[in-house]
Structure formats: C-alpha cells, structure tokens
C-alpha cells in the first residue's frame, strides 16, 4: 500500500472548517439558521472499516461506506492532522453493498486480496445532518451534524459544524464562523468523525501528549511555522475538551505544555510575524497562568509531605479548577483559538524570511537558542532564583525548538547526534522542572504557614539536585550539535 503522503498528493481534495458545539447549541443554531435559509434534512448511517491490526490507520487513511437517501457511497480519506481547517485528499465511489472496494485507479492505494478480506466494520456513526448548500454566494456549504457513535457496546453523542469551502477562500469561511459564534458557543474542531470513533473503541484517556512532528525538508519557514502551530493547537484542544468534561490533572499539565509550545513557536518564528502574533502571545500567556495555578497545586498535593496542609490545599485547588473551568468557557478563550486558526489559514504576512528553506531557518534558530542557554547558565549553581528561572526558560525554549526541528535534520544522517542531544535536553528539562516544583512547594506551604517553610530537608535536597542539574546542563552544552 502506498503511504498517505503519496496519496494526499492525489485529487480531489476536501477543504473544510470544523467547529465543536454541544448538541443543545447545535439545535439552537439549526433553528436560528432555518429561519433565514431552508436546509436539507439528511439522515446518514456510516460504517467505518479497518483491519484488526489497524492497517489503514497506520497508513494514514480512513475508509467508510455511508448510506444516505438510499445510496451507498464509499469514501477513502487521508487521516486528518488539522485544527479548524482540514485539508484532506478524498476519493468517493458508489458501491453495491456494505463491503469495501479498493480501486487503485480511484484511491491511489492497493491492497492484496488477503488484506482486503481482513477489512471489517470497526464502528458505526449515525448522523442527522442539516445542510445549507449555498451560503456566501454559493461558495460555502454549511452543515450541522447531530451524531451518535456506536462502537462495540459503547455509544457517544456529539455535534459539529462543518463549513466546506466550495468556491470561497478561508477569509470568507472564518468570517462566517465568527458571525455564527455570536449566536452559539463554537470551539475549534480538531477531531474527525473517524478519530472520535476509534477513540471510543479504546480506553478513556486522561490527557493527550503532543504528537510526533516531522517537517519536510522541502518546506519553507512559513509552511513549517503553520504546520507547527496547527499541531500545537490540536494538542491544546484535545486536552481542553477533557477539561470541559472533568477535572484531570494530567490534562491541565498537557494543555499548559501545548500553550508553551504555541508561545515558543511564536517566539522562534518572530521574524516572520506581525503585531497580531504579539497579541496572541499575550492572550496565551494569560490563559497559561490560569492553568498554572491549578497545576502548581496538583504538584504540591502530589508530594508525600503535605499532610498537615492537605485540607487547605484541596480547597485552594478546587478554587483554582473553578477558575480554569470558568476561563475555558469564556467567549474570549473560545474565540482566541478560532482566530489563531483563521490567521494561520489566510492572514500571515509574506516576507523573504518566510520563503527561506526550513533547514537553514531551523539551524539558525537552534544555534541561537543554544547560545542563549550557554550565556544565561554561566555560574549556574551560584545563580539567584530569579536568574535560575531565566535559565529554565532558555532551556525550555531550546527543548521545544529541538522537538520542532530535530526530525528535519534526520535525512542528513545525524540520527545519533539527534538522539543524544534530545536525550540531554530532556534530562535537563526534567531536572530544572524538579527544582521549580520544589520552589513552588516552598512558596505555597510558606504562605499557608504564615512564614518560612518548615521543611528542614529542603536545603540539603536542593544542593544535591542543583549538582545533578549542573551535570545535566554540562551534558547539553558539551553535546555535539546536529544542526552544524
């Protein structure tokens, strides 16, 4: 079977914006739109197929057969990796039965007979769709889906809004989304129906980590920036969705990591960007602080020496989570991520720097962050807490730059250097994080105690940790730099 990257270069393509909303809000929006425009009402039933070992998913493809209005249509799509704006290769054909048909002339993929026979139903999605086929001068097709997933013995309901770009550009589509968001709360969508179904088949997740990121060496710096930002938006929204349903400490942590990654990307690519990037950064920083208050209390409560203050800490944490939930439900927070997605899709300024090959840009960015860490960390053990915090910020920026760019250099054969440097940076990040956690613990407990922390072991423990952190720092500074 050809890989999904090769398949994605085929035609035709589907370009759409996905937004999440609650079933109740979906019904309200349907009623609001139906007053001005008459929608088509369509009932659909779709069966999604894969092999028992997930062959299609691993190849970056999804396959469904949808029954709608008495017709069976098979659709093969490339696996989505978007946030808000989804751009996917898509192949459709009518079929006679609920049995997959793989035609390489249509899909660009081939399966031998053994693998084709192994395809089996994985789950079913039933959809009630209200569709407005000609919005914005006929350039946008608007649909509101009320859906139910049936996977084994599990069911889940969800609703989503889709704006499919027929002849309109992203500017017009996102402008329409913003107008609709004035009627009901809309959130940036990052999950396809297929993803939701496969997720329901697995164990419930308490959080989502950042997915591996590979930038093509033929990308420009502007293309790489957009790819990185979309991956970070997806990382954030997957965890935000969990937090809107329940309080999960690891989801708070990962949502905060995603915000740091977004801010790091804005800083690393600053030379490409305009003043709007700085406004986004300020908003992301403010949101990160709200999440940080909850995360700090989770860290302190996770220690085994807080029994004396546990009740007070739990009350504080409940209040911090209340603040997180309230912040996530504001119109400002919802709009922030929709606006960033719209900016990435259409409003980025063009410049000579944006046309630079990503390998050259990434090498320079990594070298700059490395020098910054080396400069700030001189005399590390004797630094004040404030200056040590600046070292941690520099190490964090280098850590995220390495995450973003390392795979770009793999085609040049630097695998060992890449692994060694990445492991050294990760170890340093862990050590600096442990130092920061201890400082946060002391500050919070001292506040509860009305004075200095009474943990007599702290000084000795900090000395040991400082020395091991210095060794981790030296390993980073002495490591061979793979971007040279």
Shape: globular
Integer-rounded radius of gyration: 25 Å
Reported for the largest beta sheet, the result is: 8 strands, antiparallel, barrel
Q: Looking at CATH, which topology of one domain would you report? A: Hypothetical Protein Pfu-838710-001
Quickly name the level 1 CATH class of one domain. Answer: Mainly Beta
Oligomer: single chain
Strand residue content = 15-25%
Query: Span between N and C termini?
Result: 36 Å
Number of helices: 16
Helix content: 40-55%
Ranges with pLDDT <50 over ≥5 residues? 1-11
SSE topology string? HEHEHEEEHHEEEHEHHHHHHHHHH
Describe this structure as you would to a colleague.
The protein is α+β, with helices and mostly antiparallel strands. Among the domains are: 204 residues, Beta Barrel (Hypothetical Protein Pfu-838710-001), CATH 2.40.320; 122 residues. The protein contains 16 helices and 9 strands. An 8-stranded antiparallel barrel has the order 1-5-4-3-2-6-7-8, surrounded by 4 helices. Strand 4 and strand 5 form a beta hairpin. The two termini are 36 Å apart. The N terminus is likely disordered.
Structural key phrases:
single chain, 484 residues, alpha+beta, Hypothetical Protein Pfu-838710-001, 8-stranded antiparallel beta barrel, 16 helices, 9 strands, 52% helix, disordered N terminus
């Amino acid at each position: 079977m050809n890989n999904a990257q090769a398949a994605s270069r085929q035609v035709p393509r589907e370009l759409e914006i996905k937004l999440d909303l609650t079933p109740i809000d979906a019904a309200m929006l349907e009623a609001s739109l139906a007053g001005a425009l008459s929608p088509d009402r369509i009932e659909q039933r779709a069966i999604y197929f894969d092999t028992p070992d997930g062959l299609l998913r691993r190849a970056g493809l999804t396959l469904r057969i949808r029954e709608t209005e008495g017709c069976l249509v098979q659709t093969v799509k490339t696996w989505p990796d978007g946030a808000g704006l989804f751009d996917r290769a898509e192949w459709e054909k009518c079929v006679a039965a609920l049995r997959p048909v793989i035609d390489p002339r249509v899909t660009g993929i081939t399966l031998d007979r053994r693998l084709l026979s192994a395809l089996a139903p994985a789950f079913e999605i039933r959809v009630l769709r209200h569709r407005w086929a000609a919005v914005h001068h006929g350039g946008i097709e608007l649909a509101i889906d009320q859906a139910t997933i049936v996977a084994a013995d599990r069911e889940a309901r969800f609703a989503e809004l889709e704006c499919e770009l027929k002849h309109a550009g992203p500017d017009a589509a996102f402008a329409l989304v913003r107008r609709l968001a004035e009627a009901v709360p809309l959130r940036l969508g990052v999950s396809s129906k297929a993803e939701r179904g496969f997720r329901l088949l697995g164990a419930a997740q308490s959080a989502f980590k950042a997915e591996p990121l590979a930038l093509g060496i033929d990308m420009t710096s502007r293309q790489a920036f957009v790819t990185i930002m979309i991956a970070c938006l997806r990382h954030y929204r997957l965890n935000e969705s969990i937090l809107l349903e329940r309080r999960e400490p690891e989801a708070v942590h990962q949502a905060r990591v995603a915000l740091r990654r977004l801010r790091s990307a804005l800083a690393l690519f600053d030379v490409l960007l305009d003043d709007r990037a700085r406004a986004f950064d300020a908003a992301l920083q403010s949101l990160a602080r709200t999440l940080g208050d909850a995360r700090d209390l989770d860290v302190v409560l996770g220690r085994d020496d807080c029994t004396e203050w546990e009740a007070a800490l739990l009350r504080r944490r409940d209040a911090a989570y209340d603040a997180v939930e309230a912040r996530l439900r504001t119109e400002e927070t919802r709009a922030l991520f929709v606006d960033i997605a719209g900016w990435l899709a259409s409003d980025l300024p063009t410049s000579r720097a944006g046309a630079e090959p990503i390998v050259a840009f990434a090498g320079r960015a990594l070298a700059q962050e490395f020098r910054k860490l080396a400069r700030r960390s001189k005399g590390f053990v004797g630094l004040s807490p404030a200056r040590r915090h600046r070292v941690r910020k520099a190490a964090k920026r280098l850590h995220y730059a390495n995450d973003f760019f390392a795979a770009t250099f793999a085609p040049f054969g630097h695998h060992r250097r890449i692994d060694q440097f990445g492991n050294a940076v990760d170890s340093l990040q862990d050590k600096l994080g442990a130092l920061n956690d201890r400082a946060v613990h002391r500050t919070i407990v001292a506040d509860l105690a009305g004075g200095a922390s009474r943990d007599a072991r702290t000084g000795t423990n900090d000395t040991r940790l400082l020395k091991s952190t210095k060794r981790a720092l030296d390993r980073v500074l002495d490591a061979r730099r793979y971007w040279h």
